[in-house]
Amino acid sequence: MFSTPPYLLKDASVSRVMTQVCLALLPGIAAYAWLVGPAILIQLAVASLAALLAEALMLQIRGKPLAPFLADGSAVVTAWLIALTFPPLAPWWLVATGVFFAIVVAKHLYGGLGQNPFNPAMVAFAVCIVSFPALMSQWPNQGLHLTLVQQADIIFGFAPRVDALTSATPLDALKTALKLGAESSVDVPSLLANQDIYGNFAGRGWEWVALGYFAGGLWLWLCGIITWQVPAAFLAALAAISGALWLYAPQSFANPLFHLFSGGAMLGAFFIATDPVSGSTTPRGKLIFGAGAGLLAYVIRVFGGYPDGVAFAVLIMNICVPVIDLFTQPRIFGMKGKS
Amino acid sequence: MLDLFKFKGGVKPPSNKTQSVGKPIALAPLPSRLIVPLHQSIGGTPRPLVQVGDRVLKGQMIGEADGWISAAVHAPTSGTVVAVEMHPQPHPSGLTALCVVIEPDGQETWIERQPLDYRSLAPEAVRERLQQAGVVGLGGAVFPTHGKLSASRTVPMEELVINGAECEPYITCDDLLMRERAEEVVRGIGLFRDLLQPKKVLIGIEDNKPEAVAALAAAVRAAGEDFAVVAVPTRYPAGGAKQLIRVLTGKEVPAAKRSTDLGVQCFNVATAYTAWRAIAHGEPLLSRLVTLTGNVHEPRNYEVLIGTPMDELLALAQPNPDTDGIIMGGPMMGFLVPDRRAPVVKATNCLIAHSPRLFPPAPPEMPCIRCGECARACPHELQPFEMYWFARAKNFGKTQEYNIFDCIECGCCSYVCPSRIPLVQYFRFAKSEIWARERDKNAADGAKERFEFKQLRDEREKAEKAEKLAKAAAAQAAKKAAEAAAAEAAAVSAEAAPLAADTAPAGAAPTGTTASPPAAPAPTDAEAAKRATIEAAMERARAQRAAAQPRNTEALSPARQAEISAIEARREAAAPPDENAP
Q1: From residue B579, how far is each of B84, B465, B569, B576 by CA, in Å?
Q2: Which of A25, A212, B313, B481 is least buried, going by the fewest C-beta atoms within 10 A?
């Protein structure tokens, strides 16, 4: 009998961790489904299926056992994050392409579970928004109520993609409006107050989705799956920079609350930037990582050419992880207060 | 009330202590045989004092301490020595070691015991007495206690920490000791206090043992002492010496330092009790408390003679039929005993009957996802996942940069790891590899040094030889010259000789071959040089062989080592040491 101490093990596993992450996404998904209809559920299913297929394929090629790695749930988490960041009415092949790229290239070509230097879901998002900018920018029109069949027809290409179905995201709309109205007297407060796309404190409806992610994220933190540093630093940095610019020129910049609850901020802070594999691992490193991602997300979403900046912000911070970790190693027991 | 400090990390595994505290301590019956290993403490291996056939009395010394850091070993009962042989040890590797096997006569006839009042003895004498009585740390480290009872000369002793935390799940022997024998524990602590003269004495007990806290507090009051009995939060590994020192004093002892460097010394409660028995009753360490628990019908604590075979002992607790092994120690840091006939030793605090039902095998290892759970659980605030990464890659230099030698192998990281990676095993592997490499390097360095010295000596001998030859030649030349002078009375030729005698040695010294003014010695000199070259080459080859192969003087059985040292001693006594020897 070969067995080594400790003989007692805590009841924990990778698949349990991943399952908890998926569970924590449910409030946000519920709000999302309420907002845009069952399309998101179709996308989640398509993405999960594609992820498991890609995972099985790569495991087979790499000569790894299928069962434990398919059951670990990491591919499903990646798939869900992709489905939740892509437009809900995007064609199925776009989502599937993103998932395949994430699993095959961003994950397995780097060595599989635990080895990827970049967040696979964000790699997929970046690749697709660069390759298919138009499709990745078509978000369903507010007030549009489609049945499950109608949505499925659009996703699977049985119905034509009509431009009238889609519109910009609240973040994009604000940016465009500000650009167009640069000469006239357009200002942010009146835009937010008068346009139908905006709700109580962010995009109409989307604010509730963000709240759902926020609630799920807090639960993950209470469960001990994530630590507080990354989300807190991410949201604090985002609030700080948006707050500073808002105070400086409230006519031209939206308030911090709008930014915290728009786009991928909440999803990014609690579910994407907290990815342990591609993120920083030291307590101080996590603060730097989170704050850097929050700042970059704001800069890209407000001054950059993309509707949102979370994906690129996280990827840029992924690059910095080795150096952040190197310089933020915590002092060990008995060595505090010494250089 | 004392302000407590916190240590970071730690885990809270199910404690499983209630099973074995229900009944009082029982005396384990005499086993059929007692197998007493000679090496039961950190430090030198005691030399056997008995031979097969000898009658021994209970408490008679059978192994004499070898050096200062070593502790004596005694016959746990009276009887006959039936063997002095190699026997499987309670060690994860299953190695064997020299043991004295005693067949009890059932009489329990004691040697003459000498109870002493330690206050009448010099501290030196008390320490020696403890060494003679074989008292070692019973918390598990088995460091000879007398070696820890000298205060540092430079740092004043501030706190004496007494460890009654007993943080490992399942183990309850210290708990029962404190409940039932609190008075003698307190007296033992008093003995330590008087030897070390600390400013305060702090007794730390995990707060899941309220009975022990109460018993010890009552005993402290009854003895009129001012020891602080402190209930510390229950969190594994609060009973680690460094963790308990941190909790009670706020001081963090780094790996590179001893606690005495920070003015703290730490002893286990059972050590204090045993030291007191040794001094005040003249009883050497012959038995200890052992918890029998796990997959058994009757879990309980027993007072067990050192040397009792584990299988015989565990039978007292009636193990369930599906028991498939014995864990010595707790489930976190203990190990499965490879051979159940191994004896109880001074380090044996607990035997847990192992069964797959009680301790299901770990599921297959998954890749590390860098979740950092291990780092948050590490009481030494290390980054286990980084060390794992480098240990796996055999990049041992990097593991040391991440302070692998600060790891106390408590197992918290393995306990929490969701990928079920046996992290502690990786760290043990890395540590032993680093030690092995260091040993190899030292061996190679030693061989190199010896070879260089040999070369130096050869050169010197060669030079001396050449000098001698040159001197002889010069003397001969001088003699000839003198003869010539005497015969022919020619003053001119006589002046050349002393000149030759003066210059020859100076020229001969460095190389030996260039200085040969007379023609005659030249051939012998060249021959000597050739021989020396051959010798040097052979020596080089031998040194290389020695560096490449393990030498047969390493990893010998104690018996063989004893034999060798006896031969060495005889040789030394017979012949005066060689002057040329290094």
Answers
A1: 39, 17, 18, 9
A2: B481
* Residue B58 bridge partners (DSSP): B110
Of A176, A159, A158, A178, nearest in space to A167 by CA: A176
Is the Cβ pair B381, A17 closer than 8 Å? no
B-interface mutation test, from A2, A8, A72, most B Cβ less than 10 A away: A8
What pLDDT, in 10s, does the model give residues B271-325?
999 999 999 999 999 999 999 999 999 999 999 999 999 999 999 999 999 999 9
Asked if A66 has any chain B CB less than 8 Å from its own CB, the reply is no
Are the CB atoms for A126 and B380 separated by under 8 Å? no
DSSP state of B120: G
Q: List, as ranges, residues 79-108 from A with C-beta within 8 Å of B.
A: none
Average pLDDT of the residues in B390-412: 93
Domains in chain B, number:
2
Indicate whether B121 belongs to any domain. yes
Average pLDDT for residues B122-130, to the nearest whole number? Answer: 92
> Domain ranges in chain A?
14-167, 175-327
Helical H segments across B112-251, by residue range: 123-132, 173-180, 182-196, 210-222, 241-249
Residues pairing with A198 in the sheet: A203
Residue B376 included in any domain: no
Q: Tell me which residue has tokens 């050449």.
A: B466
Query: What CATH code is carried by the domain that includes residue B193?
Result: 3.40.50.11540
CA distance B478 to B4: 91
What lies within 8 Å, CB to CB, of A190 at 6+ separation is: none
CB contacts of A332 in chain B (<8 Å) are: 380-382, 403, 406
Q: What is the domain extent for residue B504?
A: 451-549
In a domain, B517, yes or no: yes
Residue B53: left if φ>0, alpha if ψ -120 to 50, beta else—which one?
left
The pLDDT of residue B511: 45
Number of neighbours of residue A62 by Cβ within 10 angstroms: 12
pTM: 0.82
Measure CB to CB from residue A114 to each of B14, B368, B380 and give the nearest one: B368
Q: Which of B316, B341, B362 is the last residue of a domain?
A: B316
Q: Is residue B194 part of a domain?
A: yes
B149 within 8 A of B127, measured Cβ to Cβ = yes
Beta strands B79-88 and B55-56: pairing type?
A: antiparallel
